[in-house]
Amino acid sequence: MTVAKLREIEKAFQARKTLITIVLISFDSRNDSPRALARFRKREKLPSENWHLLTGRSSDVQRLADRLSLGNYLNMGDHIVHGTGIFLLDEQGAVRKKLDFKNRDVATLFAAPGVVAK
Q1: Tens of pLDDT along 5-38?
Q2: What single DSSP character describes residue 109?
Q3: Are the C-beta atoms of 23 and 54 separated by less than 8 Å?
Q4: Which in 8, 34, 49, 65 has the greatest CB count within 10 A?
Q5: 2-109 has which fold?
Q6: Domain ranges of the chain
Q7: 38 in helix, strand or coil?
């Protein structure tokens, strides 16, 4: 579901002739090794030029989740239960816009601050 939304976002940026870099960060440090992420990239046919798949130590991933207000995640062994967010960052890494369960409208990524997209 997240990859489908990211593809929709990528198309919206392409339509506006704007370059975008997409970074997916795995919560599953134990199972999502670089090799596993490479298989995922191949299966999903994700281009390597602008799609980056990252993993890290659990403590680092949790620290990032906290910083983005995603909260804690729970490793159930066969899957990870976690919050979801798609963040639009500026060149300095500051969060400019966010998509989540409440706001899934890609157009809001392009709306001026304080303006509701229709």
Answers
A1: 999 999 999 999 999 999 998 878 778 889 999 9
A2: G
A3: yes
A4: 65
A5: Glutaredoxin (3.40.30)
A6: 2-109
A7: helix
